[in-house]
């Protein structure tokens, strides 16, 4: 049976965020011979009240055909953002309607929030003692209201196993794609991303925003240097070599790179090498030694250290988690 995702529509909801689960999970199709073309998720929407209208933050309402009892059928519950959370937002407590709705949720159900939907999870006690995120503009208020939550305002999303939270708006897409990758592998998630016309993967630890001024448009771009580096990630790349691609001094290049990309050239190179290693782990049978060389880390030890730092897992564990097909792979 498809994994059932129940989306809880609250008054004041944001229509864009309400549609994310249907767009991502609803378009996820099996790629294996036994389930090729079959929908992997069933997505339904419910309200905290009996079927009827639910207000949005736009100039229209939506009609929701399922009441709160639908939550009892969920394998995953998704709570999009709402601008009418009332005491959930002001006092950190559930309304009587919400509390009654949450009583239907079975133990062990995966709980997910998009943007300020995290307030609902926190008020229900799901985030106590856990890491979580929300929209950066609400992070300080969220932390004061829920001191037991370990708030990280600088990331796109946080996967804490059975409870996942995301930052605002488009970060909900990143989180849902991540969940598809976790559930069914990179091939399925990449197919959904292609048909949705969005990047197939943005790491959860990526910053929500870059707090720096927009670079002067008169500055020379660093695009040429980045393209040059991407074409030779498996080889040693020195900062002065990148600067030479733009005919700049190392100092000027580093400054302009930071202004345009938001991080240093060395940090960017490491990120790109981690991304290459991830793709190779997901899509090839190459040994860990070979992947370490092809990604530019040189040794398996260096690869393990960087992957552990970036993702918190070893190459072998990452491959086992996100491998698109279930067949033996080399681990040498």
Describe this entry's structure for a reader:
- The protein is 40% helix and 12% strand.
- The chain is of the alpha/beta class and 332 residues long.
- Helix 9 crosses helix 10 (250-261), helix 11 (265-283) packs antiparallel against helix 12 (288-294) and helix 11 (265-283) crosses helix 13.
- It is globular, with a radius of gyration of 22 Å.
- The two termini are 37 Å apart.
- Residues 209-219 and 324-332 have low confidence and may be disordered.
Low-confidence stretches: 209-219, 324-332
First-last Cα distance: 37 Å
| Overall helicity | 40-55%
- Sheet with the most strands? 6 strands, mixed
Widest β-sheet, arrangement of strands: 2-1-5-6-10-9
Strand content: 5-15%
Structural class: alpha/beta
Write down the overall geometry: globular
* Number of helices, counting only DSSP H or I runs of 4 residues or more: 14
Please compute the radius of gyration using only Cα atoms: 22 Å
The ordered H/E elements are EHEEEEHHEHEHEEEHHHHHHHHH
Q: pLDDT average, as an integer?
A: 87
Instruction: Please give the number of β-strands.
Output: 10
